[in-house]
Design a protein that fits this description.
single chain; about 375 residues; alpha+beta; nine-stranded antiparallel sheet; three-stranded antiparallel sheet; 12 helices
Length: about 375
Amino acid sequence: MHFIKWISITALLLFPHASPAKKPALAALEAELDKIALKKIPVAGPGCTVGVIRDRQLLIQKSYGLANIEHQVPLNSKSVFRMASVSKQFTGFAVLLLADQGKLNLDDDIRQYLPDLHDYGVKVTINAMLGHTSGMADFDTLQQLLPKPLLSSAGGKFRLGDEDYLTNEEFYNVIKSLPLAHRPNTKQAYSNFAYFLLAELVTRVSGKSMREFTTQFMFKPLGMQSTFFADDMREIVPNRAYGYRTFEDGLKHYETNIFVVGDGGLYTTLEDMLIWDNHFYAPKLGKDPQKLMEQFNTPNSQFTAENNGISYYANGQYIEPDYTFHNGGWMGTSTSYIRRPAEQTSFVGMCNSSSIDPDIFTYELPKILSKLKIWDVTDPAIF
């Protein structure tokens, strides 16, 4: 008989003293998540850890699938996932902390701190980089902007990701040579390179690596003991959720060989994401934590989006009227983090496969809560 190898730790276990009247709502929510997993999570394959945070606690946490297929290790709330672009908000906050410490100004030109960058011929501010309006390029235009093609060690075209390897210094030497893709502050264009350079900025200004700075000034003070920027590809990471992808000829390992940080590279757990989520409502970092958090949630810029709406981006977060969000996708990992500040409710999805979309959980959860008639912001004790 086929079955999905999963473990489940639900709010019914987290809150054993919950009244019987509240348990059916949680059981119904859990059943809906199970239905999604049954359809989307492969049998005895990689999967996802999903959490619903409400009023600063994990109301429900579920893990489906395996963290390590070879050894049949199931995912759980302590599994350490690579967060891909969800990492950007942590980079953004680190930059704001440096500004809070008086070590830089967000309106400064990035070349004031990284003078070896290409001479853009125009001022590119740190704030523009944080808001994706810097004019800097991204992976899709890398080869086009290089003065000469980036080659692999064998002389052929460089294969970005899980085949060819670049150290952080080598990657910086490539990115620093690039011209702008377009003039700054003329449009909003997502740039991983800008966030990679922001991590380099943190290192140059603080005198510490991005990992050291964020651990000392962010993760350790908050108590996020399993969170760090991974900058060593050979590092042993306890409880790591290994990356996979389903190719035409089957499921295979899919791990990046590029361990640069800033645009991605953060490793964390669902339990630590709860701590990070709580920090939005009870900030602790900075000289004036509440003021710094307000700045963190304030868009760096606003631009007309392709759908004729307005696109707001705030230091690594997309800002919508009723929620903030960011998704991440890289080799062997797919992530999603959505916050609804007015309701102090958040949805976290972390999958260890590029072939699984965490949105099947995080984007569906508000609809499920509404369908079950348990989405009632006027009654925070509904569960």
